[in-house]
Amino acid sequence: MNVIIVVGRPRQGKSWYVKSMISHPRLANRGVMAYDPQNEYGATYQTDINGVVTTVPGVGLPEYRPGLMRARYTGSIENFIAIVCEKENDKHTFTNRNIYFEEATIFFKGGMSKEVRDLIISRFHTRNNLIFVFHKLGTIPPDIMDFSNRIILFKTYDTQKTVDRRFDSEILSAAFKIQNAAPDKAKPIIVDRQNNKINGRPF
After folding, report:
1. CA distances from 191 to 95, 131, 150, 154 (A)
2. Average predicted confidence (pLDDT) for the chain
């Protein structure tokens, strides 16, 4: 199962990409649990379009309640983590889902809790995919980066020097260089760390 990092500064297409992952027809039967602090994953949400706050269709996830296979949670991150880490008879309650950590920049703050580490380590038993959404590469805890096998890289506010020094990863540095040279709002660079590929091509 995958640990996926989606990273990019605001207005680069990151949120649209994540929403398209959630609503993709191929994944319609897969469970979803999304941390939704900005209330963006319901039936509608508000966004800025050319300077005008506009209500647009969302991905339609209902508010979480026990038993739902596809839901979003708008409460505290501590409660969200407690919910997705729930166990019954020493077995994880949440299985076969895509678990989204929106706004991960805010609550990880350079570190990873024991509970999140357990989620990552147990993903092969739970068959959960974990998706972490960040604004900058420089705010991603190295532990999470080490566990990740795919990075969806939009333009960020990072510098090449920061990326090279923080992660010491040739494939990530190369992908960042490609994205950094691209125009604003360019398509994301897909870094497949497991198979050592950038945008499907061997690195």
Report:
1. 26, 14, 6, 11
2. 90
